[in-house]
Amino acid sequence: MTASPSQGPFYEVLYTSELEPSVPVAAIADIVRRSRGFNAAHQITGLLVFDGGRFCHYLEGPADMVHALALRISADPRHTGFRRLHAATRVGPRRLPGHPMSYGLAYDEAEIDAVAALTGEAATQRLMQALPRLELEP
Questions:
Q1: Which residues form a coiled coil (predicted)?
Q2: Which of 28, 100, 108, 113 has the greatest number of C-beta atoms within 10 Å?
């Protein structure tokens, strides 16, 4: 695993999407497993939240890597309705240091609804506030 610097500047992206109906929920485990290896090798940290039908995904890291990854993710046929809520350069410590890809289950659909109702930094802050209420897997 490549070490990821803890200070910025970082590029961060937050989006929501829906699981493509023909994709089995079991595919998410493979997505998380592969993402952890890729992200660690490219100094990307993040969190994927799933509520049984929708995703909320936050990524942070080197601008070129995160931007390219977000473009690839937006074209992935395993989900639909890709909606970018936030994308910006940020200076300061990582929000999720040491987490190449955390995975969180949201048992209440209202968690993703609350994030999706916002845009920009407010959406990202709302996701970070939800962390204590998610079942997280580092």
A1: none
A2: 100
DSSP state of 25: T
CA 44, 24, 76: angle at the middle one, nearest 5? 45
Q: Which helix (H) or strand (E) holds 17?
A: strand 10-19
Q: Where are the alpha helices (DSSP H) in 1-136?
A: 27-41, 63-74, 110-116, 120-130
Q: Write the CB contacts of 87 (distance below 8 Å, at least 6 apart in sequence).
A: 11, 12, 13, 14, 70
Statement: the pTM of the whole predicted model exceeds 0.85: yes
User: Domain extents for the chain?
Assistant: 10-137
Instruction: Please state which architecture CATH assigns to domain 10-137.
Output: 2-Layer Sandwich (3.30)
What are 71-113's pLDDT values in tens digits? Answer: 999 999 999 999 999 999 999 999 999 999 999 999 999 999 9
d(CA 102, CA 14): 14
Burial status of residue 64 (CB atoms within 10 A of its CB: 0-12, 13-18, 19 or more):
exposed
Neighbours of 132 (CB within 10 A): 7
